[in-house]
Amino acid sequence: MTVERVSTGIPGMDEVLNGGIPERNAVLLTGGPGTGKTIFSQQFIWEGLEEGEPGVFVTLEEHPVQVRKNVEGFGWNFREYEDEGLLAVVDAFTGGIGRASEYEKYVVKDPTDASELIGVIRQAVNDVEAKRVAIDSVTPLYIDKPSVARRIMFKLKRMLAGLGCTSILVNQIAAHERGFGGPGVEHAVDGIIRLDLDEVKGRLWRSLIVWKMRGTAHSMRRHPFDITDEGIRVDPEKVFVKEHGEVREVED
Ligand SMILES: Nc1ncnc2c1ncn2[C@@H]1O[C@H](COP(=O)(O)OP(=O)(O)OP(=O)(O)O)[C@@H](O)[C@H]1O
Ligand SMILES: [Mg+2]
């Protein structure tokens, strides 16, 4: 059986993934602060919209108004697709406090309550008939309860895959943490993409590595990427090596 794949919409990334993310996979996108997780997840949703696949973007980290404003900086007009009923932005940031409750259609009052969050996402997915979902981020769901992290992630994954969605679950780690989000989470998800930002000799380098992706072979190398006014661009031809606190380019 051939694997149906979903294009990430990030130039160079589909090559790293041998053609894209296998359909219905729940992919953990993990990395430290400022590594590009939010932009990556938004670009994934934007690509879907441009290709005629409705999406749901769930924000726990930034005000939904700020999300719409930030993506405009990359030329991605979320509002237009929301008005057409092809995109739902789920507000799991404001808690329904303030003016957001008047104009946001999808509000999660307590984002640490996984059942409530899952219920609102399910409604949003059904309403817009979403094929893609991004959650930025899932970390608040389990940060203070690691023992239930796996159960929460399974619940989330089952719901998303059951509805036929391919999803990006953003996970936050500390700047130089080695893991990806804890054992429960890492095993529950279908894929792990890790974004890194490393300082070498006073300069920051961006690179990413696909740690796992169920259902497909993928590049086993670390690849550099850039963030520009057009979003993220990965260089699948270039390979980086990280060792002894150094990052350097090598021949593949
Ligand atoms: N137009 C742009 N051109 C180049 N780089 C940009 C642009 N916009 C943002 N960036 C870079 O992207 C970074 C932010 O990316 P993003 O918000 O996706 O990070 P993140 O991984 O979600 O971080 P956090 O965990 O703090 O939420 C900025 O720190 C900046 O370095
Ligand atoms: Mg972010």
Q: What is the name of the CATH topology of one domain? A: Rossmann fold
| Spatial order of the strands forming the largest sheet | 6-5-4-7-8-3-9-10-11-12
Second-tier CATH architecture of one domain: 3-Layer(aba) Sandwich
Computed CA radius of gyration, to the nearest angstrom: 17 Å
List the defining traits of the structure above.
binds magnesium ion, 14 strands, about 250 residues, alpha/beta, binds adenosine-5'-triphosphate, 10-stranded mixed β-sheet, Rossmann fold, 9 helices
What does this structure look like?
With 252 residues, this protein is α/β, with parallel strands linked by helices. The chain has a domain at 23-195: P-loop containing nucleotide triphosphate hydrolases (Rossmann fold). The protein is 30% helix and 30% strand. The protein has 9 helices and 14 strands. It has a 10-stranded mixed sheet, with helices on both faces. The relative contact order is 0.20. The mean pLDDT is 94. Magnesium ion (MG) is lined by residues 37-38, 61, 136.
Q: Which secondary structure elements does this structure contain, and how are they paired or packed?
A:
Elements: E1 5-6, H1 13-16, E2 21-22, E3 26-31, H2 37-50, E4 55-59, H3 64-72, H4 78-83, E5 87-91, H5 100-103, E6 106-107, H6 114-128, E7 132-136, H7 139-142, H8 149-162, E8 166-172, H9 183-188, E9 191-200, E10 203-213, E11 223-228, E12 231-234, E13 239-243, E14 246-250
Parallel strand pairs: 3-8, 3-9, 4-5, 4-7, 5-6, 7-8
Antiparallel strand pairs: 1-2, 9-10, 10-11, 11-12, 13-14
